[in-house]
Amino acid sequence: MSPRRATLLTYFSVGLLALLSAGRLLEAGDVPWTVLLVVALASALLVGPATWLARDRLPEDRRETLALVGITLAMLALPVWLGVSLAFELPLLRWLDALLVGGTVGTTLVVLAERTVVPERLRGFAV
Description:
The chain is mostly helical and 127 residues long. The chain contains 4 helices and no strands. The protein has helices at 3-28, 33-57, 60-87, 92-116. The two termini are 14 Å apart.
């Protein structure tokens, strides 16, 4: 599979998951709009510029190592989030849906910004 096709398949999969999560949130009635907005803004304002700076300043092998560390930390944070949700009786699925939709919206904003306003030398997506 070509890198372009793999990237498009990833975008499609995450978009479909976000669409299903948005449907569940809207079906439940009380949508946590503030959580969605905060997560979307945080991912757009923190992840995008940090990625662009890392792409500009770090060599590719170092970026791959940092990406693996980030993925590992995210995987370790999931059981902690599950434990906190169970301990404090938080509605886990609703919050995960809100985080997924907000993160997807923020990532979409970052990709759109990269395509429209970021200088050519800082662009990294080859789609």
